[in-house]
Design brief:
The chain is an alpha+beta fold. The chain has two domains: 2-68, Sandwich (HSP40/DNAj peptide-binding domain), CATH 2.60.260.20; 70-130, UreE, C-terminal domain (Alpha-Beta Plaits), CATH 3.30.70. It has three helices and ten strands; from the N terminus they run E-E-H-E-E-E-E-E-H-E-E-H-E. The strands form two sheets. It has a six-stranded mixed β-sheet with strand order 2-6-5-1-4-3. It has a four-stranded antiparallel β-sheet with strand order 8-9-7-10. The longest helix has 13 residues, at 81-93.
């Protein structure tokens, strides 16, 4: 099994891809497969959140690019900015990972949250897409200089990082 224990910040091109959904990209310990089918064990620093395009380095020196897998999402749209801000508040109050889009918010499909959003007047649509939620404002750690030194980590309440 190929071991991956470090993030890669250099400029070398990746020779492999690791396609992961958001939940898998929040785990620091994971047994999975590269896109080629090769089995890998990932052991990253606790609290690592991988983003599309991030790179890892395996013990044998290979560079592996992270690809965000499409997953089942719900997109919420509202008639005005006030209503959109209101649903953002309610999602944030529940510590839900949210992707902010132009005029919309995206969350992972969850029938309870969908019911709440509809009750708040949101128009919902279901889609398959890569999920790249906003980083949490209070969690700090690993960041990429090209994204800005102040980018914070995603704060996931009650989630396991094992």
């Amino acid at each position: 099994m190929l071991l991956i224990e470090s993030l890669y910040t250099g400029s070398d091109a990746a020779s492999e891809q690791l396609i992961l959904n958001f939940d898998a990209r929040t785990k620091s310990r994971l047994r999975t497969q590269l896109a080629s089918g090769e089995e890998v064990g990932m052991f990253l620093p606790r609290g690592s959140i991988l983003r599309n395009g991030d790179k890892l380095q395996s013990q044998d020196g290979r560079i592996i690019e992270i690809v965000s897998a499409p997953e089942a999402l719900v997109e919420a749209r509202c008639d005005n900015a006030y209503e959109l801000a209101r649903i953002a508040y309610h999602l944030g109050n529940r510590h839900v990972a949210v992707q902010v889009c132009e005029g919309a918010l995206r969350i992972q499909q969850d029938h309870v949250l969908e019911h709440m959003l509809e009750g708040l007047g949101a128009r919902l649509s279901h889609l398959e897409a890569a999920f790249e939620p906003e980083a949490g404002a209070y969690a700090h750690g690993h960041h990429h200089s090209e994204r800005g030194a102040t980018e914070a980590r995603i704060h996931i309440m009650g989630g396991s990082n094992a």
